[in-house]
Amino acid sequence: MPFLFIIRLCCISIMLWGTALSPAFSAKQNDNAALIKQISQLLLPQRQTSETGNIKLRIRVLTPPVQLAELCPTPALKLSGNPVKLTGNRSVIARCGKRQFFIQIHVNAIATYWLATRDLSSGQILSQNDIQSLRGEIDKLPNDILLEPARLLGATPLRMIRAGQPLTANMLRPQWAIKARNEVTLTAPGNGFLIRMKGIALNNAALHDTLRIQTRSGKIIEGIAIGNDKVAINIE
Fold first, then answer.
1. How is domain 183-232 classified at the architecture level of CATH?
2. Which conformational region is residue 101 in: left (phi greater than 0), alpha (psi within -120 to 50 degrees), or beta?
3. Percent of the chain beyond pLDDT 70?
4. Does pLDDT of 174 surpass 90?
5. Cβ contact 91:81 at 8 Å
6. Which DSSP category does 167 fall into?
7. Bridging pattern class, strands 156-157 and 172-173
8. Between 161 and 28, the higher pLDDT residue
9. Average per-residue pLDDT in the chain?
10. 113-132+141-173: what CATH class?
């Protein structure tokens, strides 16, 4: 009888101990959830556009809880470095006033990427019939995997691409929005005004690329390709 009493007492003690720890454990989980949400918001703007579809991230915090406990309630977060690949091991800088911490994380991602539907030859122009989407994990895919269909349509393969291959940036030459020696329209917005002028492109440029333009006065300036034969320049 004393032995059974001791066993029951131990069981009750364990249950009470677990109950006492439960709120703290739950709070720690909630803290991590808030931290992971902040980190997700840092990562997604690098890749997330209206064309990439919904990128789903799975973030695992590698930094031990004892170190995370030293963080302030609302640290200012910033990604460390500028890696090309979205997934894998990453480092996040957390600043609390004058104190700085490094949080180590591992990122997995699911996204929509694009495959060649058939063998593609060097020099041909890609159409919608040449590509198909596939949704899945991108962790083991090349760093420059293309997620935006707009970067594929009208592009030209630089080499033979086999059917079923995931399409990457180094496989393709983008469609030129502006070709060298074309006349282009330059726009320069100012405070309450907009300047328009003509110029000659000195190099090829895809959408959002930087290019050099020669104005009618002979001056060489740089601008950003914003459309077919359209360039935006900054006059500040």
1. Roll (2.30)
2. beta
3. 82
4. no
5. yes
6. P
7. antiparallel
8. 161
9. 83
10. alpha beta
